[in-house]
Amino acid sequence: MKAVAVKAFKSTPELMELPKPQVSPGHILVKMAAAGMNPYDWKLTDGIMEGHMPHVFPLIMGVDGAGIVEEVGEGVTRFQAGDKVYGQFIHKPIGEGSYAEYISVPEKVGITIAPKSIPLTTAAAIPTAGMTAMQLLEKLGLKPGQKLLIVGATGGVGSFTTEIAAALGLYTVVTASPANYQRMLDLGAKEIIDHTKAPVIPQAQVKHPEGVDGLIDLVSNAEEFDKMCGLVKPGGTALTTLFVANAEAIRSKGLKGGNFETKGSPEALDELSNMIDQQKIIVPVGNIISLKEAPEAVALSKNGKARGKTVIEIGL
């Protein structure tokens, strides 16, 4: 089968021909339709989990994906052949990922039945970005009409967050370049700050001198995040997904929040599926590429040049 993998930590991803995995007891074999790209994918190939989980090489990349169950192993009860599934396919050992034509995973990993109203290629864009966005907003706990600033809004997580925030009735201010203005407005942003024109903070201070009720920062380093927190009203919440927050500094500003980590689960995916099937949100797919194009797309992601949510179409 074809797969995108690395031969060693920090090596360049390659399109390889590798053996098709075999199903084993408690596992399901999924024929992949598509994989969703996330920065965590290349962080895994750089060794972020080295020493914490076993790895195998060549290490097939990818966590998010969607496909059809082709075969189930002995003892499997959650799924049956023919089921359309999606979610986070990460499992031990690291290296049996979703950037492949087939994947064999334990039935207890974070996957579930895919939304019925969208293609599997679209569903592959949802898992990590969608769950992160939903849980960030749950953590903020803002009420309709309150102001939310999203810094780094044009990527996968930011796009989902903007859209779900709009569905919740929040007044959402996002950072974006002119090339992304219309897309962000279509996703429900009420206001856009052009971070390419001038620094975000003075622009936000002019437009919202009273401050915002919540901050979700998806791109800033520790120093910048600390400064961004100054835009939030006392009693508000500031969250970062990059683990650069200083808890003491946040408390000193009278704020809540800090570092945020997604907790993926089939239940969270089911909640997202319901929102999608009820047409409360649409899935913001930015780019659809082939397996052959994936190594180049990974390089763009590492250099911070990716735009929107990228999905690797693998086919059925």
List keywords for this structure.
7-stranded mixed β-sheet, globular, ER, YIM1/Zinc_Alcohol_DH_Fams, 16 strands, Alcohol dehydrogenase, 27% helix, Quinone Oxidoreductase, Chain A, domain 1, 6-stranded parallel β-sheet, 2 domains, NAD(P)-bd_dom_sf, alpha/beta
Could you walk me through the main structural features you see in this protein, from its secondary elements to its overall organization?
This is Alcohol dehydrogenase. Helix content is 27%, strand content 28%. It is of the alpha/beta class. It has 2 domains: 156 residues, Quinone Oxidoreductase, Chain A, domain 1, CATH 3.90.180; 132 residues, NAD(P)-binding Rossmann-like Domain (Rossmann fold). The strands form 3 sheets. Strands 3, 5, 6, 7, 8, 15 and 16 form a 7-stranded mixed beta sheet that branches. Strands 11-10-9-12-13-14 form a 6-stranded parallel beta sheet, sandwiched between helices. Helix 3 packs across helix 4. The mean pLDDT is 95.
